[in-house]
Amino acid sequence: MSLLRLIFACLLFLSSTSSQAETTYTVSRVYDGDTVELKNANGKLKLRLTDIDAPERNQAYGQKARRALIELCKGKDISINFELAGQDKYNRHLGKLQCNHTDASVYMAEQGYAWHNEKYSQNLAVKNAAARARRDRVGLWSSDNPLPPWVWRRLYGNSYQSAR
Q1: What topology is assigned to 3-163 in CATH?
Q2: pTM of the predicted model, to two decimals?
């Protein structure tokens, strides 16, 4: 763990009296439809949005999903809520992202830019938003058989890893 990450984790721990911290950041980079880089006076962190799985950048609808998240959060102060212990295998923090008082995961699902991540999420708002988008053939659901990102990663893992 880098010294900056250790310091950042300590600051988050000290600023929180519960297992969650809510902090204001700005979005400094959008990697894809479910991963952003955030920065504030304490530094940067990579955040993986919970509850959704968006297409990868090299996948069909990947760039549209990325642009949708950029538009939602561009130039706005945002807030995140994440568990301090919540990190994935790529060392990204896991959390909820609010841009302009909008839950980014719900927005991405309802606009048809992401799947509800049923394997890791019980969030009914995201689940219902994704179901409505699918029913109404919105976004990626306008395609006959959109390929889920977890299947795409399994099939094209080398492309996925080089794009990260």
Answers
A1: OB fold (Dihydrolipoamide Acetyltransferase, E2P) (2.40.50)
A2: 0.81
